[in-house]
Records
---
Amino acid sequence: MMITMYGFGKVTPQVVGITRDLRVLWALEECELPHQVNGLDDFAGELHSADYLAINPFGKVPAIDHDGVIIFESGAIVIYLAEQSGRLLPTSESERAKALQWTFAALDTVEPPMTQIAVIDLFEADAEWAKLRRPALVEMAKNYLAVLEDVLISKRYLLGDQFTYPDILMVAALSQIQHTNLLDEFPNVTSYLTRCHDRPAWHKCLDAYNRRLAA
């Protein structure tokens, strides 16, 4: 059955390219699952309509409807798509456990300070509280980037030579700070991002995403 993915149809220009629906679109392309996109207009309040709140009561995107199976939260969706397709999954039980480990590392450890830096830089750069808060966030981000730099010394991807679903989520987290120079000190992380963004599925989903938001 066709998967319906609920994402942004219109959104604040500053966040185009880093919204959480993009990681789900990437997973859909990697998994080659048939899908359609229901683009919601953030400005018109469609994320808080009664119809959409029945799908995601938090009024956030993304969400999917797969033949009546409704799932929200980007990490949960990406894992679900990998399991449904049998792609982006490591083969051994121990490696699957590590995939979950890196999923939570991306979403719970790495992404929060990266997202806060993006929010400050894109929306609150002149606020006094933001000027006081940003240095601590940068220090935290650099600490996490240093860990990833060491992990990626001898690995193409988080689990080795195979691109798996946690790579999508980690790249999405790191993309939050690509407008800064924070990655300049971490060549392994930079190469990892480039390698992941060179994948055909990424280019395909990004092109479709940009066309939808430009319409």
---
Amino acid sequence: MINNQITIKFISVVIILFICSSTSFSQTKLDTVYYDSNMKVVENLGLAETYEIRFIRKGKPHGLIKRFNKQDDVVESTTYEKGRKTGPYTLVKGDTLIKGTYKKGKKVNIWTYEHILDQNARMEVFDSRGNQLPSMDLPNFSTQGKDVQYTVEKDASFPGGPKAWSMFLRKNLRYPSAAKQAGIQGQVLLKFTVSKTGSLEEITMVSSPSHDLTLEALRVLKKSPNWIPATVKGEVVSSEMTIRVVFGLGRR
């Protein structure tokens, strides 16, 4: 009799949990939105430059939401809570990688705008209320217990600049045969640190359309000579860089 009562209670709990889960799931739906080059909503992928996969809860965006280009590379990533952006944010816009943090829909803490293979990288800092701080306040700003120590005056660069980097890629980059036969193309975004001596360290892949393309991009980057390190007030410092290696098949 006792065993039967326990079994009945267990079944009742399972049914209640299932009903609660079903109710919660029914309140959240998956949605796909297509955008043209001007970020206007279009009807389908054929007319779109990018597309966004998002969850909608109670009519508002909710959770981690990512936007992709036609090569399925992530170009925008953010988290929504009750319809407002909250948490880490990343956006690839043209040749610029934008990274920052949102809190209840407002920019907070440090935002960086890194121009790929360019020396015009800049940084913005916001307080906890979303107010941008003037440059004179940067040395005193603190985020997550770590003080902002400096702003890079001259970013690290490939010896000879962007043109030399392009020539280096043309000479050394090899299109993986498997990816070429499969018609896979797109860009590989790599992030790394240029040390004080110019050596490349902590190389990681940010996004890529193919494992083979990733391996080739990593191989070529590791083959490159030492870079010219960044400087702050005339002093050499280590710094983070992000570059894009593009694989294209052209017209077929």
---
Amino acid sequence: MFKIRSEADKWKYVVGITGMAVCLSVLLTWLLLGDGLTTDMLRASILGPLLIAPPACLMSANRSLEIHQLNKQLEHLLAHDQMTNLLSRSHFMRQMHEMQGDLRGSFLMLDIDLFKQVNDTYGHLVGDEVIRRVAAVIEEHVKQDGLAARYGGEEFVVCLPQKDLDDAMQRAEDIRQAVERQTVKVLDKELNCTISIGLGYADGRNPVEEVLRRADEALYLAKRQGRNRVGAPLPLAT
């Protein structure tokens, strides 16, 4: 079955089906009339499909393309967090499990510091904007070679495949500093926020849940040590 995924596919479909209809019409006319086939009859066998097939094919192709585009939109909605447009937690974890045996690289667990105070002081609309701003910073720093997801609430997770802990530590520090520099305007004030980050490393031997748990422990150790810092990874069980 011809799959219509783009405008180019649509017109290939219209031309292809129309051409097949013309050929089939001419063939059937010749088989039915044989030596009695006249020029006018041949012309009619060609013009008929040319008048009928293109609009019918175009209608069908437009519908198929529309369905494909709607399916792509639905896939995007299911795979992404609606507030931040980062990957959803479920989609992120599904990708990690698919790579489980071959997964080598670093993980970052990130959490906005004192976020409850932001919500309580400025309201949830400002809190939502803070989440979006932090998510945008994270995405900007990992979009070339990593995966970022909203893990839940004000917490995020990043996977940096094939990156060692030194690279991950530098990336985490870059993200931390970028978040610290940005501001969110609230009425006549500028609100600053910070994040704490914990690191973990996957060597292919431990389940991804265990790697993330250790990264989460490193994150909360960083918070206990004063927040707005990057926590070194805790050792994994062997």
